[in-house]
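Feature request, filed as a ticket because there's no other form

It would be nice if the structure record came with a short human-readable summary line next to the tokens. Right now we just get the raw output. Example of a typical job, pasted below so the devs can see what we mean:
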Amino acid sequence: MNPPLPIAILGSGRGSNFLALAGAINKGEVHARVVLVASDLAQAPILQHATTMGLPTYTCPPGRFKTKLEPEIETGLAGAIQQSGAALIVLAGYMRVLKPPLLQPFSGRILNIHPSLLPAFKGLEAWKQALEAGVPETGCTVHWVDDSLDGGPIIRQEKVPVLPDDTAASLHARIQEAEHRLLPAVVADLAAGRIPWAGPGRF
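Raw output as currently delivered:
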């Protein structure tokens, strides 16, 4: 058997997808190990969860923009990930658009989970977009990351029905439940070689 897949997780918020993935790893459902948890926000709860678990963390210096990091800051983040030995980067609620300093050294080895059935409803608060559009179903998508907004090849999706009495909060909660199933399943299959990598492979 191959050694556990070393992964770095990037997040900007509560870290619920990180907790779902870490829990699946601890249960032996995913043959991987978290080698770094990084965030662009020093107070992000995902970092607190990681520290409680005894996992290495990295916090980006504060930048001038909300949607992207300055090249020198992203270069520092990329360096920290490279030093960690991560073979895969998982974006779990990471709210910055990736740029070349991170995309180039990890081309084909970055995946993201997005709360819609891409290519529908890209961008922020996709569950609200779905509700306002009146679609009968939405869901979540795990996809490889490229230089486009919520673009890149789709790996797997899970559908979530939109109920007649749904609010933005209730729909979002059910989408998150689906995310917490889908992300660990995809990482498990990548680690086991059951689905193909977009880039050079796990090592």
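Something like this underneath would help us a lot:
The domain at 5-113+142-152+179-192 is CATH 3.40.50.170 (Rossmann fold).
The CA atoms of residues 63 and 70 lie 7 Å apart.
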